[in-house]
Specification:
Layout (H helix, E strand, L loop, with lengths): L13 E3 L7 H7 L7 E5 L2 H5 L2 H11 L3 E5 L8 H13 L4 E6 L1 H16 L3 H4 L1 E2 L9 E5 L11 E6 L4 E6 L7 E4 L9 H20 L5 H23 L4 H21 L3 H13 L3 H16 L4 H10 L8 H18 L16 H9 L2 H4 L8 H10 L4
Parallel strand pairs: 1-9, 2-3, 2-4, 4-6, 5-8, 6-9
Antiparallel strand pairs: 7-8
This protein binds nicotinamide-adenine-dinucleotide and fe (ii) ion (FE2).
The site of nicotinamide-adenine-dinucleotide has 31 residues, from helix 5, strand 7, helix 7 and helix 11.
Length: about 400
C-alpha cells in the first residue's frame, strides 16, 4: 500500500485558535505583506451578514490597505462564474486576495490569484501542474470545517456542460497565510456542519486507505479521524461549543494535509458527477457514498480499518471482519444522527441515470487510481445502485 517516494507540501504560515483573526495585521507585518495597497476580499453573503468581512476591512484600513468585498462567487463555482469575478478583481487593481468562507470561496480565491499572474484562462490551467507562476499573495480563512482547501494545492471547478467537476492542481495554489479561527464557525448552520464535517472525515479515511498512503499522510489522516469522530456530533448538536468547533477545524485541515500527500479515491471520484449533474452538495455526496465504497474496499484494507476503528473509538474485539463492519456501521450512524440524506432518489436520480454516472466517475482517473481495490465500471454502477435500492 505504501509507496517508496512520498511528498508533502502545505501553506507557508498557519495560525490557529479562537479569535486568531485578530492577528491578521500582525501576521501581514511578519510576512512582509503590510506594504500592499489593495486587497480583494472574496467571501459569501452569509459571512458578510455575520460581520466578518467588515471586520477584515476595518483591520486592513488600520494598516492603510484599501479593500473591496465581493460575494459574487457561487457555491461550487463554475468556470464562467470565476472568470466573471476575475474581471471585477482586475478592475479593482488589487495586489493580493483574502478568501474567507467555505471551500467554494477558498478555491476561487486560489484560482484568481494565479489567473492574475499567469495570463491564461482557467481552461488552460485546469489539470495537474499546468500553472507556471505563483499568484499574488493569498490569505485563506476557512469558515466551514470541511474541504481543507486552505492547505491543499487543489481548486475544484464545476463544468456544467460536461456535468463534471475538475481540479486545478499546482503547488502555486498554496496560500501564504492561513487563519483557522473556530469562533468564525460557531454560527455554521447544522446541515452545513454535518455535510462539510463528513467531507473532512472522508478526506482522512480515503487518504488513509489510498494506494499513495505514506507515513506523512497517515499521521495527519489518523489524527484527523480522531479529532472529527470525537467532535462532529457535538459540533452538530451544540454548535456554540468552541472546543468541538476547534477540533473540527483542525481535523478538517489535517484531512486536507493528508489528501495533499496521498490523494482521495473512489468516493470523491463518484461524488463529482453527483455534484456536477444533480447539484448534490459535495459533503452530502461523499457521506452517502462513503459506507458503500468502504464496504466494497473492505477485503483489501482490513488492517487499515482496524486502525481506523481504534482512532474513532471502536474498542470491541472480534474478527477483523467485525471491526470493518463496525467502522461502516459507525459512519452510517453518524450520517443518520446528522440527518444527511442517504438516498439518491430524493435528488431526482433514477436507475436509468446510473450508467452515465458510472462512466463519468470512471473517467476521474486521478482519484480512481488511488483506490486500493480496482473498480470496474460495473462495480461503480453497483455502488450507485445501492443508493437507489430500498
Ligand atoms: N480544494 C480542495 O482541496 C477541495 C476539497 C474538497 C472540496 N472542495 C470544493 O469545495 C467546495 C465546497 O466547499 P464547502 O463544503 O466548504 O461549502 P461552500 O463553500 O459551498 O459553502 C456552503 C455554504 O455555507 C455557507 N457558509 C460558509 N461558512 C459559513 C459560516 N461560518 N456561517 C454560516 N454559513 C456559512 C456558505 O455561504 C455557503 O452557502 C466544492 O466546490 C468542492 O468541490 C475543494
Ligand atoms: Fe472533498
Amino acid at each position: 500500500m505504501t509507496t517508496t517516494h512520498y511528498h508533502f507540501q502545505t501553506a507557508s504560515h498557519i495560525v490557529s485558535g479562537a479569535h486568531s483573526l485578530e492577528l491578521l495585521g500582525e501576521k501581514l507585518d511578519l510576512l512582509g505583506l503590510s506594504g500592499l495597497t489593495s486587497i480583494f476580499i472574496l467571501t459569501q453573503p452569509s459571512i458578510v451578514s455575520l460581520g466578518y468581512a467588515d471586520q477584515i476591512k476595518r483591520k486592513l484600513e488600520k494598516k492603510g490597505i484599501a479593500s473591496e468585498i465581493s460575494t459574487e462567487i457561487k457555491p461550487e463555482p463554475t468556470e464562467e462564474n470565476i472568470e466573471e469575478v476575475f474581471q471585477t478583481f482586475l478592475k479593482g487593481e488589487h495586489d493580493a486576495i483574502i478568501g474567507i468562507g467555505g471551500g467554494s470561496v477558498l478555491d476561487a480565491a486560489k484560482i484568481l490569484a494565479v489567473l492574475k499572474t499567469n495570463d491564461q484562462p482557467i481552461s488552460a490551467l485546469i489539470g495537474t501542474n499546468l500553472v507556471r507562476k505563483r499568484g499574488v499573495p493569498t490569505i485563506l480563512i476557512p469558515t466551514t470545517s470541511g474541504t481543507g482547501s486552505e492547505v491543499t494545492p487543489n481548486a475544484i471547478v464545476t463544468f456544467p456542460e460536461k456535468e463534471l467537476k475538475i481540479g486545478m492542481v499546482s503547488p502555486h495554489l498554496l496560500p501564504d497565510l492561513v487563519i483557522l479561527d473556530p469562533a468564525l464557525t460557531l454560527n455554521l448552520p447544522k446541515s452545513i456542519t454535518a455535510a462539510t464535517g463528513m467531507d473532512a472525515f472522508t478526506h482522512a479515511l480515503e487518504s488513509y486507505i489510498s494506494n499513495k498512503a505514506n507515513p506523512f499522510s497517515d499521521m495527519f489522516a489518523l489524527e484527523s479521524m480522531r479529532l472529527i469522530s470525537g467532535s462532529i456530533q457535538e459540533a452538530y448538536h451544540h454548535g456554540k461549543n468552541v472546543k468541538a468547533r476547534e477540533d473540527m477545524l483542525v481535523g478538517a485541515m489535517y484531512g486536507g494535509m493528508a489528501l495533499t500527500s496521498a490523494g482521495t479515491a473512489a468516493v470523491h471520484a463518484m461524488a463529482y458527477p453527483l455534484g456536477g449533474k444533480y447539484k448534490i452538495s459535495h459533503g452530502v455526496a461523499n457521506s452517502m457514498l462513503l459506507p458503500h465504497v468502504t464496504a466494497f474496499n473492505a477485503d483489501h484494507i482490513m488492517d487499515r480499518l482496524e486502525n481506523v476503528a481504534r482512532v474513532i473509538g471502536i474498542e470491541e474485539a472480534g474478527s477483523k471482519h467485525t471491526l470493518a463492519e463496525h467502522v461502516i456501521h459507525q459512519i452510517e450512524e453518524w450520517t443518520a444522527d446528522l440527518h444527511i440524506p442517504q438516498h439518491l432518489k430524493a435528488f431526482g436520480v433514477s436507475k436509468e441515470d446510473v450508467p452515465a454516472l458510472a462512466e463519468a466517475a470512471s473517467e476521474v482517473k486521478r482519484l480512481m487510481d488511488n483506490n486500493p481495490k480496482q473498480m470496474s465500471v460495473s462495480d461503480i454502477e453497483q455502488v450507485y445502485m445501492k443508493l437507489l435500492d430500498a
